[in-house]
Amino acid sequence: MSKITVIGQGECEFDGQFSMLEALDESGFDMPYSCRGGNCGACRVKLVSGEVEEIQTPIYETGEGEILTCSVIPLNDVVIELL
Known about the structure:
The chain is mainly beta.
């Protein structure tokens, strides 16, 4: 299991959920999102540390060091920061 830490909010475990966003949502985090499909960019966060794998190709283009939580899963412990 990978641990997801959200700076200033806490942490949760990723236990095989569909996406990082789903894991955070199920754990009670108030994460921004709209489409859950990589189209809008509402779930964009800064990846501070760790590695993720893209599970769907988003249409929305992120900046360097940014990820869409709806489109990735963690490969190890990750730290993210809300933008």
